[in-house]
Amino acid sequence: MAVGIFDSGLGGLTVLQAAQKRLPDVPFVYLADSAHAPYGVRTADDIFDLTCAAVSRLFEAGCDLVILACNTASAAALRRMQEAWVPADKRVLGVFVPLIEAMTERRWGDNSPPREVAVKHVALFATPATVASRAFQRELAFRAIGVDVEAQACGGVVDAIEDGDMILAEALVRSHVDALRRKMPAPDAAILGCTHYPLMQSTFQDALGADVRVFSQAALVADSLADYLDRHPDMAGTGTAGFLTTGDPRRVSDRATQFLRRQITFLSA
Ligand code: NHL
Description:
Layout: E1 2-7, H1 13-22, E2 28-32, H2 44-60, E3 63-68, H3 71-84, E4 91-93, H4 96-103, E5 115-116, E6 121-126, H5 128-133, H6 135-141, E7 144-145, E8 148-153, H7 157-162, H8 166-183, E9 189-193, H9 201-208, E10 213-216, H10 217-231, E11 242-245, H11 249-260, E12 267-268
Parallel strand pairs: 1-2, 1-3, 2-11, 3-4, 5-7, 6-8, 6-9, 9-10, 11-12
């Protein structure tokens, strides 16, 4: 038994890295649905079907607990999966709840009624599918009142990052921050709601200004996972760690090795 980490591509490796650092004894199986990425421009039905297929594969690989490191999958598919698809003896957790809990200063799994919180104006940067789902606003409304959210779909940024064109990625981030500011002149917090945006964190912070608190998922998700495993130790277990991809294992291994700067070998899912 191991903990599964799912992403449409390799961006979720930042979550894996943070989780491994926080929980060095837990074996993780990472699955990248490289054959079907990007998810961010797909329909909700499509994202649901692809995410269910990928999570099934991780269940087969012996994972009882799967983290959706992909924001788009968390936003467009998680609730529907939890309501109608996840077997009773398995758990699937997403990335939005840990972010929102951190932002609203709640402990993991605190289900008390929504209350006033320190942040008032939140900027959400994410893929078009995540923005369209309104999942962030829905999860936030369960926990906080009086918070205003403006979402900005950051078209082009992930493609520029994937192409290694950081100059274009930076210019696009700045123009998306400008667009957000026209809707919300003075955000007090910003959520980087996509696996790829932590790579642009300093550009976001610079464009937003030092007063805006930027929340980025990897470490927050790792903390939340540690909390969860503390309460459900049977969910971690022992098992074999590994890397699976629906794409070409050689190509994906090369890119992952570059990305993490250590040898990573993906096998075919
Ligand atoms: C992932 C993989 C890609 C491969 C080739 C071109 C563009 C890509 C973009 C992404 C981003 C990813 C997605 O699937 O849209 C973002 C998603 N993991 C998220 O919302 O966190």
